[in-house]
Amino acid sequence: MLESAPFIQALGMQAETIKPGICTTQLFIRQDHQQQDGFVHAGVQATLCDHTAGAAGATLIAEGKRVLTAEFKINLLRPASGEHLICEAEVLKPGNTLSIVESMLWAVRDDQKTLVAKATVTLAIA
Question: Does pTM surpass 0.90?
Answer without folding.
Answer: yes
